[in-house]
Amino acid sequence: MKLYKRIIYRLAKNDTPLAITERIKQAFFALATDLNDIKFFVNDSMHGVSGINRLLKQYPALTPYLHTVETSHGSEQRLTNLAVGWDGSNPNGCTESIEIDDAIEIIRGVPRRYPLNKLTFIFDRLPMLSRIPNCSMVEPVPFIVKGRLHSPKLFTPSVTGWSDYPSPCIRLQSDWWISGRNNFMDAIVELGDLADGIPQLELNESERQLLESIGEIYHERIFAAPSNEEEEADIYEKMMTGERIVNQFYENGNLFGVDYPYKLEPLLLGEHVSEPLSVKKAITAEFKKRGFTFNTKYSNGGVYTITKVTNNHHQVKLTFTRGKFDADVLCVGSIEGPLWKHEFELPAAHNNMKPYRVTRQIEVDHQIGNIAAAYDATEKPIIEAIDDLYGSGPPWLTYL
Questions:
Q1: How far is residue 119's CA from residue 68's CA, in Å, rounded to a whole number?
Q2: Which has the closest alpha carbon to 400: 225, 220, 226?
Q3: Comparison of pLDDT for 151 and 52, the residue scoring more
Q4: Is 386 left (phi over 0), alpha (psi -120 to 50) or beta?
Q5: Angle at Cα 339 formed by Cα 315 and Cα 335, nearest 5°?
Q6: CA pair distance 366, 160, nearest whole angstrom
Q7: What are the beta bridge partners of residue 219?
Q8: Which residues, 6 or more positions from 274, have their beta carbon under 8 angstroms from its beta carbon?
Q9: Dihedrals φ, ψ of 199, to 5°?
Q10: Residue 11: enclosing H or E segment and its boundaries?
Q11: What are phi and psi of 94, to 5 degrees?
């Protein structure tokens, strides 16, 4: 099992994609190191002016990276050099790296000159972010993605999303989000292989100095990827077994064996929230006594995340969501280890009752109380069974 450290950055208002990319260029110039492997992915918005057409008119040398895909919303133009086998890959086989100055010129025109929908740059295979010799000579290998057993690209991590990516790199994303751009940056440090012993899990001085020179570090976490095909095959078999454990307790969205303590009423037309509601208060009342704690880094904007660690040092996470346009408090649970993850729904009542009425605090309390009952029904047959299936996990691993 190979270990990686993911570094997530806090971006201020003045941390534009252009400013970030120029800082990255300067940092590597100071190290007298070239950025020889720059992967990228951009696509057009489905509506309005084509940013890609404008970009190609200015830089026709990017034409080999162009291809069109059919989506549920129609045809979509993309420019990318991602290799076949990765999400968003270029089917034409054009995987040649672009230059850092080309990346800067593309970013300089977003969003006004080039109104692109999604933009991702991966400054990949960086030797100074790997403790494994000759890492820059090895292309990242796709691996089983946690929680994506039902994806048509089972062995393809979504490098164009907020995913774990098994390669020493820096990633920058800028996507349209409602009325503006949503920018994100992270870096990944290759720590080593457990076959050679537990590596140093903290950043060393040179790694930290480089990574802090390009932005403010917000959060650090460790993730893992299989070391070889044998390990990958073994974990895949266990993941399939785990999925069967989960699925046998559900039918048509309903969870078997739940004794719901409260009767919920359906939401009626014209009903609205009549008093201030506290979802967090209700969650705390029910789940603190079940051993869960709040995770503030992953709780905001109507999302509430609580976690606890199992006897085998795997993580159980419950994510509650309640949006402005959603009367329900919904909950998805998961249990995960370093290489695997299984999700399960915790419905507050029978599936055909949605949406439920949540207009008063007592109704929030009742819905969370029913979700707690659903959790109790899954604890032994699903959570403990999967915990035992995978055996003991590494006690030094933190999942968030």
A1: 16
A2: 220
A3: 52
A4: alpha
A5: 25
A6: 39
A7: 8
A8: 359, 360
A9: -75, 170
A10: none
A11: -85, 100
Beta strands in the chain (DSSP E): 2-10, 38-44, 66-71, 74-80, 116-123, 169-177, 180-193, 216-225, 250-251, 254-255, 293-294, 303-309, 315-321, 330-336, 341-345
Which amino acid belongs to residue 347? P
**Angle at 47 (CA atoms; ends 75, 19), nearest 5 degrees:** 105
Do residues 7 and 188 lie in contact, with contact meaning Cβ atoms separated by under 8 Å?
yes
Please, what's the b/e burial string for 345-356 (b: 16 or more CB within 10 A of its CB; e: otherwise)?
Answer: bbbbbeeebbeb
> Which residues have a Cβ under 8 Å from the Cβ of 307 and sit 6 or more positions away?
292, 293, 295, 315, 316, 317, 318, 399, 400
Task: Work out the number of other CB atoms within 10 angstroms of the CB of residue 24.
Answer: 25
The end-to-end CA distance of the chain, in Å, is: 18
Tokens of 70: 């059919």
**pTM for this entry:** 0.85
pLDDT tens by residue, 354-396: 667 777 889 899 999 999 999 999 999 999 999 999 999 998 8
Cα distances (angstroms) measured from residue 99 to each of 78, 137, 187 = 18, 18, 19
Provide the strand spans (E) within 72-153.
74-80, 116-123
Q: Which two tokens mark 52?
A: 């890609």
Tokens coding 14 = 């003045």
Residue bearing tokens 């990574």: 211
DSSP symbols for 22-72: HHHHHHHHHTT-----EEEEEEE-SSSS-HHHHHHHH-GGGGGGEEEEEET
Q: Output the CA–CA distances (angstroms, integers) from residue 168 to 125, 135, 171, 192, in the order listed.
A: 5, 8, 10, 11
User: Are 263 and 287 within 8 A, CB to CB?
Assistant: no
Q: pLDDT tens-digit profile of 223-257?
A: 888 888 888 888 888 999 999 999 999 998 899 99
Beta-carbon contacts of 195 under 8 Å, excluding residues fewer than 6 positions away, are: 1, 227
Residues 6+ apart with CB under 8 A from 72: none
Chain-wide mean pLDDT for the chain? 87
